[in-house]
Amino acid sequence: MEDDAMEDDAKLDLEAWTAQEPPRGFADRVLTRIEAEKDPKRALARTATAEISMASRRRRGLRRAAWIGGAVTSLALAAAVALFVHGRVDARGDVVAERRTEVSVGSRARAVLEPGATLKWNDEDDVVQERGDVFYRVERSKPGGRFVVHTPAGDVEVRGTCFVVKVRGNASNHGKSEMNARDLKSGALGAGATALAFVAVYEGKVAVSHANERVEVAAGESARFDGRGVSKSGTPSEGERAFDQEATASVRDPLSAANENLVSQIGEYRRRLENIVAQKAELEATLKNTEQKLALRTGDASVDSKAEFDLGADDWKTLAKDGTVKFMIPCTQPPNWSPSRAQLDRLALAPDDANTLKDAYAKSAARLASVVSPLCAQILGNADLVDKIGMNTCVHLVVDQAYGKDKAAAGEAMREVGEMRAGMRSAFDPNVADHPIAKMFFAMTGETKAFENDLAASLGPEEAHRVVFAEGMCMGRSTFGGAGPREPTKE
Amino acid sequence: MANPGLHAPIERRAPSLEVSVLEGCRAQDPKAFRAFVVRYQRPVFALLSRMLGHGPEIEDLAQETFVRAYRAFPEFDLDGAAKVSTWLLTIATRLALDTRKKKRFERADVEEADDATTGSTPEIALERRQLGRAMTAFAMTLPDEQRAVLVLVECHGLSLAEAAEALEIPENTVKTRLFRAREKMRTGLANEWRRP
């Protein structure tokens, strides 16, 4: 039976169980995400490069492929994947970054805000950056018109590129408590006089405009602009260095600086708190693991203490010589008993094994009662009394009564039980055997295996054997001394 | 402990990456880690989709798996007993189980695998697809803990001890869950199973 089960196991065929395939470009997206944690600018540049590369490959593929319909489909799918990768599309938003924050601006742009930066947008051409540092990537391949970032110092218009905009100065100087795109677009309103901004372009081209002045800044260039106008400032790194020095020296507002420090500190404390929470979870997991290992070890140690009742044919051969009978039977559990979670844990069983255990105990009790109860009732002359005195008392009653009636026959019956278990004689049918001791002890000495078989139907044979002999398993163990070896037959 | 007498795992273990690549991953070298992602992306997607069903969220979780691996790589002992593949699948498994605990996962319909038709007649391919759908649907009815053991041991070839380590449960519990999961799969798919 067990062998059959194992045989069937070997035929378990899960080949057809479908698995989702990784999409193209997955590895690059993982790296982009990792880089985004370290340096969002490089990460976005990497994404752009990867997509340009993909688009290029796609174009080459299109030239080769005659099946235009299929290519169009694949492009649409790629666009869908790209949209998913870039996350949710927000048509409008208002962000004050407490820490480094990445957002979608409309359907074609991504922005990474450094701590202290603010960004507000109502549409793709209504993006307002009041202060701080923001890195943008605007996709040129997507439909849409202008993409304009309005700053207090001027506007930056793009058609698809990667660039960063830095704004210093107090935007509230223009006299309005809440700045909006219209205020900025209407031409600086005098606010630009105290604001200083900078743009560095990594890919593509942007146009920086202030009042009637308009300067184009190409990839690899940068520009600074304020209320007085726009001027190019060399490469992005050169320009950025100069801008930072200028901003620190002249237009840095103490309140803004204090606020930036504060949000930076909040971000730092939040990161520390997250680390502590992660460490706590890790320690809890380690503790749980250690406790489980300890429980398991306790279970293993118990095997030795019960092993003397795990009897084989040779053991029974020895016992049969003097008629000693040993057995281990499941405890009689109260009605409606079910193992607790703690008991199951101690036995290293899963919660859904509770019913298996409960059913096996119930079957065992019924099996033993079907043999012992009639014998006991016969002695007592009253079946109702059997339940009242219980299984253990009944067993002793049967033994005492048999020895009182005929000691030699009782001793012989016990030796025969041992010999049957040793395989020295064929097992008799307990329903036919007439000696009560033989009938009772034959049933009881076979109960461990019967109980184990019931558990094995659900747990498997190895696991069932382990559970039966585990420390946490309630099993009653008994040894009945025999009458001694058979007397030699007289010639 | 080995897992005797079973089918070879579906996700057969391809040759491990060269030690130099793994050392690069430990040093958080992007090129090395990219090679690592490319090598192990299929098993990770397979594990997550079999644990949670198919859907766009699988890529999110796969990304998260690799990001966590990247962060933890400096602590990974290349000379230790744990295989890097087992370690990675452990991260993915715990992530999947956490996800299931936090919310019921929205599952998309199962996409038909391209390789289901490879090298077979249309009839056999259809039969395989039907079996695949039935198997996927039935596997999702298993308790999460049983499905996790089934996926790790049967599909990814982890030993019982490795699965126990991955799931932070005793090895015997792995045995129990595996036995029950197999029983349920066998019973539930008795009519669908294609026997040799």
Q: What does this entry look like structurally?
A:
The complex is a heterodimer of chains A (491) and B (196). In chain A, 51% of the residues lie in helices and 18% in strands. Chain A is built from 15 helices and 16 strands. Chain A has helices spanning 2-9, 26-38, 40-64, 68-85, 181-185, 236-251, 254-306, 313-322, 341-346, 354-380, 383-405, 407-422, 436-445, 447-459, 461-468; strands spanning 93-96, 101-105, 109-113, 118-121, 127-128, 132-138, 147-151, 154-158, 161-168, 196-203, 205-210, 213-218, 222-226, 229-232, 325-330, 475-480. In chain A, β2 and β3 (109-113) form a beta hairpin. Chain A is rod-shaped, with a radius of gyration of 42 Å. Chain B has helices spanning 19-26, 30-52, 57-72, 84-102, 122-139, 144-155, 160-167, 171-188. Chain B is mainly α and 196 residues long. Residues 1-8 and 104-119 of chain B have low confidence and may be disordered. In chain B, α4 packs across α7 and α7 packs across α8 (171-188). Chains A and B meet through α1, α2, α7 and α15 of A and α2, α3, α5, α6 and α8 of B.
Taken in chain order, the helices and strands of chain B follow as HHHHHHHH
Oligomer: heterodimer
Helix fraction of chain B by DSSP (H/I, runs of at least 4): 55-70%
Spatial separation of the terminal alpha carbons of chain A: 48 Å
Biggest beta-sheet profile of chain B:
none
Question: Counting H and I runs of at least 4 residues, what is the number of helices of chain A?
Answer: 15
How many β strands of chain A by DSSP? Answer: 16
| Largest interface (CB < 8 Å) | A-B, 47 and 66 residues
Structural class by SSE content of chain A: alpha+beta
Task: List the uncertain runs of chain B.
Answer: 1-8, 104-119
Which structural category do the helix and sheet elements of chain B fall into? mainly alpha
